[in-house]
Write a structure and sequence with these properties.
Helices cover 30% and strands 20% of the residues. It is α/β, with parallel strands linked by helices and 270 residues long. Helix 4 packs parallel to helix 5. The N and C termini lie close together (9 Å).
């Protein structure tokens, strides 16, 4: 058993390839279950400013669901397919976010934070803002927003937990909010994703770091795997490194989802 729950599709605008290509690569990677998790429509922007870049357009969300449901039936004897969504958390826009997703019985929802105010901090175009801000305050602000998202109780998995490190900008002091966020995950029964896209970014390591994973293990926070694939050849990429890391930390099981119900499965020798 091995699952990759963080796979994007062409409907997100920033991903390439069709569903079938992602599934074919999942089978080649030896995966037994995958989850498509496109970016949620840009509910936090005025309708006239919404684009398909990095998100599923409003009028295509139901189409996305229908397509994945069709694939579930087509491949039911070959690979298990789940329907998820990555939802950006924007403080003060909680009702708008839930109004977009409440009509469907999702297998899981990812909580992600990509914005600090108007700053898309993980976008290469805006990397220069790191030099203009206090790095420790960036991390504090990030984790505070993440905790607000956790406290809504609307999400199942935290995507790329320590995303601000993407461009190798690391805090220079202990960030207490990081520990608070881990404890809050435990309290709300959330799963933290080990996101292998970090291996493909300047930071060159998984999200979250080994140090954070050790704290998660001590707090008994469950874990799942996600490649954050935006191309078919990224499905399941670097999972061996992630599994080795998890074993070193002490994890023996991963989490799978079925209509938001969590199940554990043992880490194998993949």
């Amino acid at each position: 058993m091995l699952c990759d729950y963080h796979i994007h599709t062409h409907r997100c605008g920033d991903a390439q390839g069709n569903y079938e290509e992602y599934i074919e690569n999942a089978l080649k990677a030896g995966l037994t279950e995958i989850g498509f998790s496109g970016h949620c429509p840009q509910y936090f922007l005025p309708k006239e400013k919404r684009t398909r870049h990095c998100s599923i357009p409003d009028d295509e969300l139901e189409i996305y669901i229908e397509e994945v449901e069709s694939l579930k039936k087509k491949y039911k004897d070959i690979i298990s397919i789940k329907t998820g969504l990555e939802v950006d958390y924007i403080p003060g826009k909680e009702k708008e976010a839930m109004s977009v997703v409440k009509f469907y019985d999702w297998d899981y929802l990812f909580l992600s934070v990509h914005f600090l105010g108007d700053w898309a901090f993980d976008h290469p175009k805006y990397i220069h803002y790191y030099e203009k801000r206090d790095i420790n305050e960036i991390y504090r602000s990030y984790y505070k927003i993440l905790m607000q998202g956790i406290e809504t109780g609307c999400y199942d998995i935290i995507a790329h937990f320590d995303l601000p490190k993407k461009f190798r900008y690391q805090p220079t002091e202990v960030i207490s909010e990081e520990d608070q966020a881990i404890q809050l995950c435990k309290k709300y029964g959330m799963v933290i994703e080990v996101n292998t896209a970090g291996y493909r970014k300047p930071i060159g390591e998984a999200y979250p770091s080994k140090n954070i994973l050790q704290k998660c293990f001590q707090a008994q926070v469950p874990i799942c795997l996600g490649s954050d694939a935006h191309r078919p050849d990224e499905v399941g990429k670097d999972f061996k490194s992630a599994l080795d890391l998890l074993k070193k930390v002490g994890y023996s099981h991963l989490t799978q989802f079925n209509k938001k119900r969590k199940l554990n499965y043992p880490i194998g020798d993949e």
